[in-house]
Design brief:
Elements lengths: L28 H8 L5 E7 L3 H12 L4 E4 L15 E2 L11 H17 L4 E9 L7 H13 L10 E4 L15 E10 L1 H14 L3 E3 L2 E9 L2 E8 L5 E11 L5 H5 L13 E3 L2 E5 L7 E5 L5 E7 L3 E5 L3 E3 L10 H12 L8
């Protein structure tokens, strides 16, 4: 178990608005690193990985009064955490597999994020055209009713049935799509959400290091002795911690193999989820949730000011995580499925 600071309970870590000026650091980067790697200093928790999971864990733990340190081997949010679908959602599709608890928990977290980071998480209205050959209309309506009521909803609009012949969202769709539904989720700035969590952790005293690659961890005198390699200089630093969290994302197994006492018997199943970014395809800030011809679901919604983001695929990936890249087949697939619905062809 993690040691809990006296009086600690609910985390007090807040997510700062990065538009506001940050106070000047009390220490220089060199002083910060010397203190970070001091052999006389022991941290309650050391987090490996500077993606959204590692950053949020560090923020939450530091807000509970724990002495926290985090190291990331490259830049923060370098991997999946800056290459997501940019959606903050409850997982509507998981209702089909009866994962009600998963969806409810995600919807609760969506509300928390809207409250904690309104500058990074924004409401998004998604339009779901009905495809007669796939899910019946009554089933979709039932699913959306459950989605509306699984968790308390204070800000977002409830779902509704719409007639595309009268509704503005029908203008971008082919005329054969006459009926559909609209429901609410959120979109967010994924990489900035990582930085906000790290800044929140830092405000509570956490030590945050970029470009420090984890090498190994071993137990010495009831503490973890962690070895890190500074990417820039190649030198090795050691720190001590009472507990470790492995939040290395797709590198989690590689990290686990270098932690003393960890038995790695399972293989990580990785998937490649690809998106394409194309010029803006319709007027309005709504997005579309599309039922593909192979029975999957994909999104298309406004991205930045002048673009539309379309995705995602779900393909097995067996190579090194850092080599991942979209394939020509995935690009063709995403274009073809989007063009099944959109009146103006995407090229």
């Amino acid at each position: 178990m993690l040691p809990m600071a006296p009086g600690a309970g609910r985390s007090t870590c807040s997510l700062p608005n990065m538009g506001a000026p940050e106070p000047a650091p009390a220490e220089s980067p060199d002083e910060n690193e010397k203190r970070m790697t001091s052999k006389t200093e022991t941290y309650d928790l050391f987090v490996i990985g500077g993606g959204i999971n590692g950053a949020a864990i560090a923020c939450d733990a530091a807000g509970r009064g724990l002495k926290v340190a985090l190291a990331e081997m490259s830049d923060f949010a370098e991997g999946t955490s800056s290459r997501s679908s940019k959606l903050i959602h409850g997982g509507l599709r998981y209702l089909e597999t009866y994962d009600f608890k998963l969806v409810r928990d995600a919807l609760i977290e969506r509300e928390i994020l809207m409250r904690k980071a309104p500058h990074l998480v924004w409401p998004l209205r998604l339009v779901l055209p009905h495809v007669a050959s796939q899910r019946p209309r009554w089933l979709i309506r039932l699913g959306l009713f459950i989605y509306d009521h699984l968790a308390q909803r204070k800000v977002l609009k409830r779902s509704e049935s719409i007639d595309f012949r009268k509704h503005p969202s029908g203008a971008a769709l082919k005329p054969q799509y006459r009926h559909g539904f609209a429901y609410s989720d959120c979109r967010g700035d994924d990489s900035r959400l990582v930085i906000a969590n790290l800044l929140g952790a830092q405000r509570h005293g956490a030590r945050i290091l970029a470009r420090h690659r984890f090498l190994s961890a071993e137990r010495v005198d009831e503490r973890w002795r962690v070895a890190l390699r500074r990417v820039k200089s190649g030198t090795v630093a050691e720190i001590a911690a009472k507990a470790l969290v492995n939040a290395a994302g797709p590198w989690v197994i590689d990290v686990a193999r270098n932690i003393e006492g960890m038995k790695v018997s399972r293989r990580l199943r990785m998937v490649r989820g690809s998106h394409i970014v194309v010029p803006r395809q319709w007027q309005g800030e709504h997005g579309y949730f599309l039922q593909t011809r192979d029975g999957r679901l994909m999104e298309a919604f406004p991205y930045e000011s002048d673009f539309t983001l379309i995705g995602t695929t779900d393909e097995p990936w067996d190579e090194a995580p850092e080599k991942v890249a979209i394939s020509d087949e995935e690009i063709d697939y995403l274009l073809a499925e989007a063009n099944e619905f959109l009146r103006k062809p995407v090229r």
